[in-house]
Amino acid sequence: MNYQWYPGHMTKAKRMMQENIKLIDLIIELVDARIPLSSRNPDIDELGKNKARIILLNKSDLADNRWNKKWIEYFTNQNFHVVEMNSRTGFGIKSIQGTVQEACREKIERDRKRGIMNRPVRAMVVGIPNVGKSTFINTFAGKACTKTGNKPGVTKGKQWIRLHKNLELLDTPGILWPKFEDQNVGMKLAFIGSMNDEILHMDELAMELIDFLSKNYPNALKDRYQIEETGEAYELLQNICISRRCFKKGEIPDLDKTAALIMEDFRSGKLGKITLEFPEGMKEQDE
Q1: Any bridge partners for residue 167, and if so which?
Q2: pLDDT digit string, tens, across residues 182-207
Q3: Are 144 and 138 in contact (CB under 8 A)?
Q4: Is the dihedral of CA 46, 132, 273, 177 positive or negative?
Q5: What angle do CA 185, 15, 103 make, to 5 degrees?
Q6: Considering only CA atoms, which of 287, 286, 269, 218 is closest in space to residue 71?
Q7: Residues 151 and 266 both lie in one domain
Q8: Please, which residues have CB within 8 angstroms of residue 97's CB and are 6 or more apart in sequence?
Q9: Residue 246 burial (CB count, 10 A)
Q10: What's the predicted TM-score (pTM) here?
């Protein structure tokens, strides 16, 4: 399967971000803790040259705790300020204001020397579709400022939100990039729901996930579906189908329905805390 999704509104959104970057002191980038590298739009680094940077490791409750720690270490070594968080529950939110002040310390000090006191930090909130930007802003602000949804493409345009006298946020639509050089990146984005499911072959996607879980989280499928976790991905998909009695009329296995069930169970955390990619060199050290 070829993974690609770049609808027209994303081109418009990228242009809007380019036009507004000159107004910005700080870029707050949300990534999905299950795929911290693959959920980073490479265009953001180009866009954010010479800007203070924070990475929010969102949906950390769905990812493997030990790998969350490793990813924080990885990004810290890349000179990012990093916060592990869960925008739905509010975990990690309280530490963000202090991180903003730390990341923008030079800007604040520059203003102070010029006699400019309490000018708000202006931060652009960026990330790929369905990474949780709107939920983060609403939780951070303590009120519903933006529309939220569990599918990509809910935020359509820019929106300024003044949190308090020291911080203003610019919410932006989730954007991908025109071409995935590595199809594994596209596959991982499809796993977490950052692409439109309607353009995907869900049975193929589910089998790719089954294959990954069998190698890296060998008890996840066994514990959830009460199946023996031996065999090829297609065989395991069939076994889950039988275990969950996903049949069409005439007791014909409904593999599409089973695939959708597996993907939903993964995305909602019912298969356990799972990280899909690991910092370079660290996987070998851990084993």
Answers
A1: 121, 164
A2: 889 989 999 999 888 888 899 999 99
A3: yes
A4: negative
A5: 70
A6: 286
A7: no
A8: 167
A9: 17
A10: 0.87
Distance, in Å, from the CA atom of 26 to the CA atom of 97, rounded to the nearest integer, reads 12
Task: Say if residues 228 and 222 touch (Cβ distance below 8 Å).
Answer: yes
Residues 130, 150 contacting (CB under 8 angstroms): yes
DSSP class of 194: -
Average pLDDT over residues 51-71: 96
CA distance linking residue 244 with residue 240, whole number of Å: 6
Are residue 25 and residue 126 in the same domain, yes or no? yes
Hey, which residues does 162 pair with through a beta bridge?
168
> Which tens digits make up the pLDDT trace of 137-176?
989 988 667 554 444 444 445 678 888 888 999 988 888 8
Whether 83 is in a domain gets the answer yes
Q: Show the tokens assigned to 280.
A: 């370079």
pLDDT of 146 reads 59
Q: What is the DSSP string of 148-205?
A: --SSTT---S-EEEEEETTEEEEE------S--SSHHHHHHHHHHT-S-GGGS-HHHH
CATH number, domain at 205?
Answer: 1.10.1580.10
Residue 99, CB-side half-sphere exposure with 13 Å CA sphere: 21
Residues 37, 139 within the same domain: yes
Using CA atoms, how far apart are residues 96 and 81, in angstroms rounded to an integer? 10
Distance of CA 189 to the CA centre of its chain: 8
Residues 41 and 160 placed together within one structural domain of the fold: yes
Kindly provide the residue ranges of all beta strands, DSSP E only, lying in 75-144, ordered along the sequence: 81-84, 121-126
DSSP single-letter state for residue 119: P
Average pLDDT over the chain reads 87
Separation CA 121–CA 124 (nearest Å): 10
248, β-bridge pairs? 252
Sequence-ordered list of residues with C-beta below 8 angstroms from that of 90, at least 6 positions apart, any chain = 139
Per the structure, the complete domain to which residue 231 belongs is given by: 201-280
Give 7-60 pLDDT, tens digit per residue. Answer: 667 778 888 888 889 999 999 999 999 999 999 988 898 888 889 999 999 999
